[in-house]
Amino acid sequence: MQLRTYLLIDQMQPQYGALTGKTMQGEIPVEGMAEIYIETAPASDIYRVMDIALKTMDVRAGALAVEREYGSLEIHSRHQEVVKVAGQQALEVLGLTENDRLKPEILSSLLISNVDPFQAQLINKTAFGGLLLAGQTLCVLEVMPAAYIVLAANEAEKAANITLVNYTPRGRSGRLYFSGSDAEVRQARDAAIKAIEALPGRTK
Predict the structure, then answer these.
(1) Residues ≥6 apart with Cβ < 8 Å to 80
(2) Which pTM was predicted?
(3) Contact assessment for residue 139 and residue 109, using Cβ atoms and an 8 Å cutoff
(4) Would you tell me which CATH number, out of the four given (3.30.360.10, 2.40.420.20, 3.90.1200.10, 3.30.70.1710), belongs to the domain 2-100?
(5) Calpha distance 168→174 (Å, rounded)
(6) pLDDT per residue as tens digits for the range 112-140
(7) Residue range 136-146, pLDDT digits in tens
(8) Would you identify the CATH topology of the domain 105-198?
(9) Among 5, 51, 85, 155, which is disulfide-ready with 147 (CB 3.0 to 4.6 Å)?
């Protein structure tokens, strides 16, 4: 089994928690909770990871996705230590450690200043979070593997007064959209990139 992603969110921020809860098909998390994302290849191995995690500690399952190449899960709890133990126990049983995960890579970091109203409306059409307004600055981050984009979203919100517009954590790469004043968006972008680049892991 290949561990593609192993990621702890220490405390879900208000916008991030609301957006995550809106898109989860399982037990809904709320702000303030801690969560872990795990992604594996082959995809079906994620069933075993979920089984171990749920039987180890009292955690809640928010997502379980099995796609063509990758399988992913999300578990959460109000207690950070509980999700950490559940995740670590799953890795231990499988003979893995956090450092066996793939190190995330920033594929793209795009800033658009003074967003045109027509572009804003097109982006809002497919977004699940806050509204992108004309004249704001928009940041689009793309990260691989995809699930690491949730860390970028949570850390961006911690760092500055921005609006989380949307994020997509599955597939080959993940994308994050957030907006606000130019200065706030740049501050949030730098914090998100710093958090992603600080995660250790293997490069192949």
Answers:
(1) 8, 10, 11, 34
(2) 0.93
(3) yes
(4) 3.30.70.1710
(5) 5
(6) 999 999 999 999 999 999 999 999 999 99
(7) 999 999 999 99
(8) Alpha-Beta Plaits (3.30.70)
(9) 5
